[in-house]
Design brief:
Number of strands: 16
Number of helices: 13
Structural class: alpha+beta
Strand content: 15-25%
CATH topology of the largest domain: Chloramphenicol Acetyltransferase
CATH class of the largest domain: Alpha Beta
Radius of gyration: 21 Å
CATH architecture of the largest domain: 2-Layer Sandwich
CATH superfamily of the largest domain: Nonribosomal peptide synthetase, condensation domain
């Protein structure tokens, strides 16, 4: 087995983790979910044994969130994380107290769920933890040993200190100016579910047919899905009664979609902690109604302008600079816990309507491939952005997953109908299936 991390003490949260830990609540849990479907029922004992074995290789996840006077920090835990049978709504808040891990391993029927606090890592880090766990599960239960691991971490390999580095701080350039502030965006006028309730919905479509559509429109798959989502929101707004639109200000809607960008594509970082920025392409309905082609051109132009090394440095610089402000550093944690959620709601979520995240194609070794039916990934619940999308592909299927803090289903109904009108078959799974 691999050696544990040499230092078993505490370490600071990364830039994004500092924010997420400060705004976490029963409504905004900051917990995302990764669901793995199997061809047979999960064996809880084998899953627990696999988790025990894997934790030795991931000591930087073997921690508990602690309160300092000025900031939260992670401290090494001597406790043992236990797998649990799922019994609550997904993405429930992870309590910030001693002995509680920043993740859960749940199971139910044929499904294994990893629920991870965004304060410890992003989607990349979550997958890097889940995939070795799954391989170890098959090894414990079925005696399967995979020959080729690809990009999957070998749990018998030594721990690389770069895996738990704060890459924001490492690549921060002090003199780079921050980006411009975003405008206030349109927000869905939907009622919220009760605190702690969260609805999940996944549309499963053929990857090949989606790629045919995106290539026909001369854009990437992420750009195509984002454009369809823009068009769906625009159609919803236009479908409201004229008086209602005018009264609510929807005719002046600035629709902005938050698109996370993985910074590992731009910096040589191996970190499994948070390392991303978010961009907000937008369409302004005061300028008129946009066709799908116009929306695609808008997204491509925006991304072409903003996704480059120099501009990305501005976002990294802003994030780290805000954290290092002396005034903010000297404010006690209990005060930060009061003001940070207010600041985030006013200056963070106000600038985008919803979000679309793509974790790309998920690869698993040939020996276990046919034992896995799919991967579904869900965003953390939010009060301000009541509807979000995360997508990922596995095998020949693309999983487009909505996370919802509202019972309304107009937007995703329009979205999936658009896919069907393009001739793309869609299978819906989730709490609400009348689409």
């Amino acid at each position: 087995m691999a050696d544990r991390q040499p230092r078993k003490g505490w370490y600071k949260l990364d830039n994004a983790g500092t924010l997420y830990s400060s705004i976490a609540s029963s409504r905004v849990s900051t917990v995302f979910r990764m669901t793995l479907g199997l061809t047979e029922e999960v064996d809880p004992e084998a899953l627990q044994k696999a988790l025990d074995n894997v934790m030795v290789r991931f000591p930087y996840f073997n921690v508990t969130l602690r309160r300092g006077f000025f900031w939260y920090y992670y401290d090494h835990s001597e406790n043992r994380p236990l797998v649990e049978k799922e019994s609550h709504y997904p993405c429930k808040t992870i309590r910030q107290r001693k002995g509680v891990f920043p993740f859960r391993i749940l199971y139910y029927g044929r499904y294994i769920h990893l629920e991870m606090s965004h304060s410890i890592c992003d989607g990349y880090g979550g997958l890097a933890f889940l995939k070795p766990l799954v391989l170890e599960y098959f090894k414990v239960k079925n005696g399967i040993v995979c020959k080729e691991l690809g990009d999957i971490i070998d749990i018998n390999s030594p721990v690389d200190p770069e895996e738990y580095e704060d890459a924001f701080k490492k690549y921060y350039e002090k003199r780079v100016p921050p980006p411009e502030k975003g405008e206030k965006a349109y927000h869905f006028p939907f009622g919220l579910l009760d605190k702690g309730q969260y609805l999940l919905l996944t549309g499963i479509v053929p990857v090949k047919e989606m790629l045919v559509q995106s290539r026909a429109h001369k854009c990437t798959l992420t750009q195509f899905i984002t454009a369809l989502y823009f068009e769906s929101i625009q159609e919803y707004i236009l479908g409201l009664e004229k008086k209602k639109r005018a009264r609510s200000g929807h005719t002046k809607a600035n629709i902005a979609i938050n698109v996370p960008v993985d910074l590992r594509a731009f910096f040589p970082s191996k970190t499994l902690r948070n390392f991303f920025i978010s961009l907000n392409p937008a369409i302004d309905m005061q300028l008129g109604v946009y066709s799908l082609e116009e929306i695609i051109d808008q997204i491509k132009g925006y991304m072409g302008l903003y996704i480059n090394q120099k501009n990305i440095n501005r976002y990294v610089s802003r994030n780290v600079r805000n954290e290092e402000l002396m005034v903010l550093r000297m404010i006690p944690l209990w005060v930060k816990r009061v003001i940070m959620p207010i600041v985030y709601k006013r200056y963070g979520e106000r600038s985008y309507t919803s979000s679309v995240s793509n974790l790309g194609s998920i690869w698993m070794p040939e020996e276990v491939r046919d034992r896995i039916t799919g991967f579904e990934i869900f965003p953390p619940p939010s009060a301000g952005n009541k509807l979000k999308i995360v997508m990922a592909s596995y095998g020949d299927k693309l999983y487009i997953s909505f996370g919802k803090t509202t019972g309304e289903k107009d937007i995703e109904r329009i979205f999936f109908r658009k896919l069907r009108r393009l001739g793309i078959p869609v299978r819906i799974e989730g709490n609400q299936i009348n689409y």
